[in-house]
Amino acid sequence: MDFKSSEPRREDALPATAVAAVKVVIVGGFGVGKTTLVGSVSEIRPLTTEETMTQAGVGVDDTAGVERKTSTTVAMDFGRISINEELVLYLFGTPGQERFWFLWRGLFEGALGAVVLVDTRRLEVSFDVIGRLEERGVPFVVAVNSFPEAPQYPVEELRAALDLPASVPLVLCDARRRDSSRDVLMTLMRYLHSLAVTPEAS
Amino acid sequence: MSDSGHHWEDGGPERLYVITGGRSGAAEQTALDLVTLIVARTGPKNGMQPEHAAIMRLCQSPLSVAEISAYLGLPVSVVTVLLDDLIAARHVLSRAPVAPAQLPDLALIEAVIDGLQKL
Prior knowledge:
The structure holds 2 protein chains of 2 kinds. Chain A is of the alpha/beta class. Chain A has a single domain, classed as Rossmann fold (3-Layer(aba) Sandwich). Chain A contains 4 helices and 7 strands. Chain A has a 7-stranded mixed sheet with strand order 2-3-4-1-5-6-7. In chain A, β3 (70-82) and β4 form a beta hairpin. Chain B has a single domain (8-117), classed as Winged helix-like DNA-binding domain superfamily/Winged helix DNA-binding domain (Arc Repressor Mutant, subunit A, Orthogonal Bundle), CATH 1.10.10. Chain B has helices at residues 4-9, 13-19, 50-58, 65-72, 76-88, 106-117, and strands spanning 37-40, 63-64, 92-95. The two termini of chain B are 23 Å apart. The interface between A and B is large, with 60 and 59 residues.
């Protein structure tokens, strides 16, 4: 081959009947376990996709009066779950460089919803993420990744600390465990279901 | 983890410029989403640009735009330019993602819940 590319393993091929795909975005601060969560439920080894973003200093560092373009490569790890013969769910986790997620064209557009993954040792990094999702009208649930060494708080205390409306589900999880990560996704889907049934609840 | 980092080493801007013939995915409105599924109508054809041929090989089974980007080690915006070429030439078919309206379709959510329950 003339350039370096890799191929999917045979077992990673989707059936020819796969006709539609949906996506869910996993957001949260650096090192909170987004890729771990994606990897624990994904049927494929998580892959990495990249995008180069050029922007004229919008919302980046304070460079008042300085016209300059910044170009940044943002990488995202993602995984896949075949829901049935026709439907595929993709999970996108977003490592680091939080301020760039929302500039990634098409990441949140068309997403079913988002999971905000939280580390109780660094609650403050979640505020910005939650605020931006609310601004954009992206439905989300909050999952607290239970690191063994992290302090444990009652769920209601965390809800208050995050200033989270009562309607937004908040669950504890262990992102390393497949069943636990699956339950987080179920929580999001049930929440989306409730929003679809009673739109005014949002 | 992915070894796509190695691809990026020699994936400088000049090379990407050459691959896309100087076109930038960002400037052109593409209908392709990260999770649009792409499937090739045939095998790779003689004389195809290597990147086009690689996509044809990858997409013998349906594959999302994000997966194509990951396997090729190319940014999504470059991959969408290449895919737009292949779609225009009718070499591949794209299966648009389910576009949820402001509120996702109940049947769709229920299908996902069913699928997750089987995990």
